Every structure is written in structure tokens, then in C-alpha cells.
Amino acid sequence: MSGPAAWGEPAGTRYLTPDRIELQAAARDFAMTVVLPLADELDKVKGEFPDAFLQDLAARGYFGIMTPADYGGMGLGVFEYCIISEEIARAWMSAASIIARANGMGVGVEDPERRAELSRRQVRGEWIGAAALSEPGSGSDLASVATRAVDEGDHWALYGEKRWCGNALRADFVQVLCRTRDPEPGESRSRGLSTLLLEKERGSFPAGLTGVVIDKIGYHGFLTWNLTFDGVKVPKENVLGGRASAAASKGPESTSGAYTMAGGEGRAFKAVEQGLNVARVHTASRAVGLARAAVEDCIAYAQERVQFEHPISDFQAIRFKIAEMAAQVETCRAFYHQVAQMIDDGYPCEREAAMCKLMATEMAVRVTGDGIQVHGGNGYTTERAVERHWRDARLTTIFEGTSQIQLKIISDRLLPRSPLG
User: Fold this and answer.
1) Residues known to be catalytic
2) Which terminus of the chain, N or C, has less C-beta within 10 A?
3) What is the pTM of this model?
4) CA neighbor of 99 nearest in space, from 72, 133, 60
5) Which CATH architecture best describes the domain 273-414?
């Protein structure tokens, strides 16, 4: 099978089946006709997604890509989740990120009837969440999380502080990584961590929870919060397990559908690590989308901009630069396709997910930076979207584990430490 000739159009590979190409093309059309104009309007004023846009995402099924069809979702895998996200990120990375606040997040409760109800609500866009993992003193080192849940009989009471919690105010729930007990002697520091489901009203914080907005240089569309928990009550049954794609849920702890109940009270750290594999490949797909945006914008600009009586696309320096940019994008796309399919096929791939995230995000920073250079002085204005692509790409090397954390994960799996290390 051969794809369309235009650069960046879906091309036939052993991964891109006709159904996937159709899904990808629909996401591309949505991104360019709906998401891109919204990004051009809202990013400059640090505006938030309007409710109508969230309803549009729900209507297209994007909040339930990995949700089982029995619950109203698409019943697809991480691969489809990522190729849709790449297309949306090409227009605005934030829009590709808001769908990650669904797709099985916040539904992994033990009661199957409640899990089904929450899943159906999520597909309809009525159960969109926020994740509270990092803290002022605990970013990459999640095993040192200090936020504590105190057992008060029929509920937990949360105390502590969380940072970098995107979409917290407008969310219907917040997933809070916290400590429900101290590790026993000889246990890892990560034991005793749990993920609690804090249900809330959209647009307000419950009693005992306050927040301050963190001002960012990019990644607009939703607000990012620093949260303080002072006795917030969470029902005892709201302890979450993990989340995985349907295809990846093949172990002895898996359940039917998109969710795995690995984790549970005091054992959340492993589930968080497994979830980060998906998150890192998802970040790689978003990074590819951003970099592709820079290439496509440069191709258009180079043919439009005339210097020395020629469009700058005639000059070898520009032609070679854009060719190099495009080659880097294609390389990283092929890599994230491979790793996403590995996850769907049930293969362990913590090393590969870290490699994929590392390579794609560092590539996105280089390519979007080159995009500004190709635009010259015009690239250093807010008149062109290429500066937005760079601001958003810069973040991808930080969240879901910095590039240095990815290097640690990779090297630890390649090079066992000596007894004297």
C-alpha cells in the first residue's frame, strides 16, 4: 500500500492499516479545521478550552479511544491513541493533552458496576480529570512523595501539597498519589503509596483543597495548579488501581477491558510506572506532531518568503535544513509507532518507551528551534505559530520524566551497576 505523495500525509506501513489511516485522516482534518484556529486564538491570551470544544472532542470519541466498546468507547489501543494525538498536537499540543485526562484515567475502581458507569460518563466528556503526582520537593523522585492520607474510619483525609496539576479546577476528579502508610523495615521507599480518587464539582475545589495557578510560558488551553490539601475527605473505597490498554492487560492481575487493577492501597508505585510507559509514548507522539508542524510551516513559509528575487526555498541552505528536519520527524514517528504497537501486543518495553520519549522530545526542540531560524526575524514574533511550537516542544523534554531521567532508565537497563558502584 502506498500513501499520498504530500509530505506528512499518512503513508502505508505494516502498522498503518486502512482503518488506522482512516482514523488518522479524520483526526488530521479535525486538527487543521477546528483545533488550529482555536489555538491561534487562545494561546496568545493564555485562554482555556471552551466547553463546546470539550463536547466536540467527546462527540468524536477522543475521550474514549482506549475505552472498551462495551462502555461506549472506541475499544482501540495505545497505537490509535498516539496517532490521533500526533495529529491533534500538530495543531495544538494542549488539545492532544486534554484527552489524556480521560481514556481510562480515574475509572479504575474495584466495583465493576461503578467502573462501567464512570467509563460511560468519561466517553461522554462528563468525567475528565487531573493527575496530582509531583510535589514541590518530589518531581522525578516519586517514591519520596510526602502527601499523606490519614485513615479516619470511613474515609481518608488528605494533607500535603501537589505541584504541576494541570486542569485541576475544571476537572471532575483529581487522582492523588499519596502515602497511606510508611514502608516496613527493609521495604522500598515506594511501598505504602496509593492513588486516591478525589471526586469534585467541575469549576470548584472541595472543602480543604485550595490552589494557586502556576504561570507558564506555554502549554496553554488549561490552567496548571499548585494544590494544598488540608484534610480533604476521600471515601475509603476510592483507592485506584492502574490503567493499561486492552491489548496490554494480559497479566494475572488484569481485568477485562481497558483497565488493570494492579496497584491498590499501598502498592500504587508499580502501577504509576506502568502507566508512564503509555504516557511517554504518548508524549513522543505529541512531540512528533509539534515538530511536524514546524516542518509544514517552514515549507509554506520558504515558498512564500522572497529574498534576492527568489523564494528562499530555492536556496540550498534552507532546502537542506528543511530536509534534515523532515528526516528527524519521520525517524521518531517510526520509533513511536513501533513502541506503541509493542505495548498493545503486551510486550514489556520500559526501556524502549524511555528511548522513544527521549529521542522524540529532544528532536522536537531541535526541529522547532530550526523552524524559528528558517523564519528569521518573523519566527521571533507571535505573528507566526512556529514560536508556539517551540514553547510547547520545550516542555516535552521535562514532563513524564525529564530527558535525564529517561537516560537513567535506559542506562540502568543496559549497564548493571558493579557491587562497588
Assistant:
1) 400
2) C
3) 0.89
4) 60
5) Up-down Bundle (1.20)
